[in-house]
Each structure stands twice: as structure tokens, then as C-alpha cells.
TrEMBL record:
UniProt protein name: Thiazole synthase
Lineage: Bacteria, Pseudomonadati, Pseudomonadota, Betaproteobacteria, Burkholderiales
First-level EC class: transferase
Xref: CDD domains: ThiG (cd04728)
Entry annotation: catalytic residues: 106 (schiff-base intermediate with dxp)
Keywords: Cytoplasm, Schiff base, Thiamine biosynthesis, Transferase
Designated gene of the protein: thiG
Record organism: Massilia agri
Ligand binding (1-deoxy-D-xylulose 5-phosphate): 167, 193-194, 215-216
EC code: 2.8.1.10
């Protein structure tokens, strides 16, 4: 890794991370594959659906923390499966107790079971309560620049607009809206939901996103561990391309070699 990448940290809630790829922990064959794919991705932050994954709620069942211990990874509890602000707040308060008081969480309040689109009024209501309660909240949201600005004004530590529907693998369907969110952002912007393959992750980073969160794109691949490695490289390449600055697009050809001083 070159000097730029080595010192180009992602900072969330005052903590620096070398990796800009965040991963989920669901849908894998077993816990062993979960760990193997997470390591291949080079991820430091792993998000966990508190309502679906055991991190101590059931002491008699295998725990995700057995393979992804909190002293090795930042465990990011999320509210997947919550459809009201009340349920989301309760879920994250429970997660804080299970994780020894850790404050960094991911809020998502869904609008319906078919699209899993964010329900923004309930999301905002939950965020207001969580911020007052001392949480550092990363927020899954619609790709609406106005809503993203409101979330920042309330006090979230990162906005996480969807690229397309959760689990759809459709990639970034509205890069223009995403660019508007990035342009006005005062906190990190991470694409969350819809990434399907490595090129989607690279495009998100080339647009200027600070990071990418994904789960299904890795876990549902034919070879999840190999795909995790591909996503790791894609995020790095996209970030480097963004920092380097792409050449302008032209409507005419331009020779790649000198046109003067030619040999005769």
C-alpha cells in the first residue's frame, strides 16, 4: 500500500479506521465463514442485526462474538427489522448493555417489508432520542440531500444513503443525488445497501464516498471469501482514483503521445 493509502484514514466519531469497507455479519454459511470473509475484506467495523444475530442475548447458543471478538473488531449494532422509532431505540439501548456501554450504533427504521426503504420521519424521531441519550449514530437513509442535511443537523456521526434497495445488488441507481449529499456533507458519507459487485463499490468511492457498507454482495456470492477480497481492493482502488482526480471526459479523441517533434 502506498503512502497516501496508509495515512488516509476513515474517521467516525473521533476514531480512525484504516479500512473504508464495512461489512455485515448475516447470511453466511456458518460463523467460520463469517470470520473468514470478514478477514478477507480487511474490515474493521462489522455491523450486527441485534434482532437476528446472537451476541449474548442467548447464552446457550453460539455467539457471533466468539469469531468476531470486540477487541479485534468494532461491533456496530444495527436495528434491522425495526419499523418504528420506539423499537429502534429500545433495540440499541439493549445492544449498548450487551456490548459494555459502547456508543457507536447504526440506525435503520424501515418503511415496509417489500422494499426495506427507510422510513425517514421515524428515523429522524429515533435519531433525536438516541443523540440525547449519548449515542454516536450512523444513519441508514434515503438518497435525499435534504433528509441527509437534517440528519447531520440533529447530530448523526455518519449518513448512509442507499445506493439501491437492500439486498437488490442493483448498484448505484442515482449517482447525482449521492453526489449532492457528498458535496454538502459535514460528516462521513457511506453507501449502504444495493452494492452487487466490486465495480459498484469502486464507483461509490470514485464519487467521493468515505466508505461502503455491504453484506449480501459478499455473503450471497458464489465464493464469499473471494468476493470479500475483491471488494477490499475495489474500495481501495476507488478511493485512490478519487484522490488522484480523473481526467476530463471529451467528445473528441486526443492522442496519448506527443504531436510535435516527430521523427521524419
Amino acid at each position: 500500500m502506498n503512502a497516501i493509502a496508509e495515512h488516509d484514514f476513515l474517521t467516525i466519531a473521533g476514531r480512525q479506521y484504516a479500512s473504508r469497507l464495512l461489512v455485515g455479519s448475516g447470511k453466511y454459511r456458518d460463523l467460520a465463514q463469517t470470520r473468514e470473509a470478514t478477514l478477507a475484506a480487511g474490515a474493521e467495523i462489522v455491523t450486527v442485526a441485534i434482532r437476528r444475530v446472537n451476541i449474548g442475548q442467548d447464552p446457550n447458543a453460539p455467539s457471533l462474538l466468539d469469531v468476531l471478538p470486540p477487541d479485534e473488531f468494532t461491533i456496530l449494532p444495527n436495528t434491522a427489522g425495526c419499523y418504528t422509532a420506539k423499537d429502534a431505540v429500545y433495540t440499541l439501548q439493549m445492544a449498548r448493555e450487551l456490548l459494555g456501554g459502547r456508543k457507536l450504533v447504526k440506525l435503520e427504521v424501515l418503511g415496509d417489508e417489500k422494499t426495506l426503504f427507510p422510513q425517514m420521519p421515524e428515523t429522524i424521531k429515533a435519531l433525536e432520542v438516541l443523540v440525547r441519550d449519548g449515542f454516536d449514530v450512523m444513519v441508514y437513509c434515503s438518497d435525499d440531500p435534504v433528509q441527509a442535511r437534517i440528519l447531520q443537523e440533529i447530530g448523526c456521526v455518519a449518513v448512509m444513503p442507499l445506493a439501491s434497495l437492500i439486498g437488490s445488488g442493483m448498484g448505484i441507481l442515482n449517482p447525482w443525488n449521492l453526489s449532492l449529499i457528498i458535496e454538502q456533507a459535514s460528516v462521513p458519507v457511506l453507501v449502504d445497501a444495493g452494492v452487487g459487485t466490486a465495480s459498484d463499490a469502486a464507483i461509490a468511492m470514485e464519487l467521493g464516498c468515505d466508505g461502503v457498507l455491504m453484506n449480501t454482495a459478499i455473503a450471497a456470492a458464489r465464493d464469499p471469501v473471494r468476493m470479500a477480497g475483491a471488494m477490499r481492493h475495489a474500495v481501495i482502488a476507488g478511493r485512490e482514483a478519487h484522490l488522484a482526480g480523473r481526467m476530463p471526459k471529451r467528445f473528441a479523441g486526443s492522442p496519448s503521445s506527443p504531436t510535435t517533434g516527430l521523427a521524419t
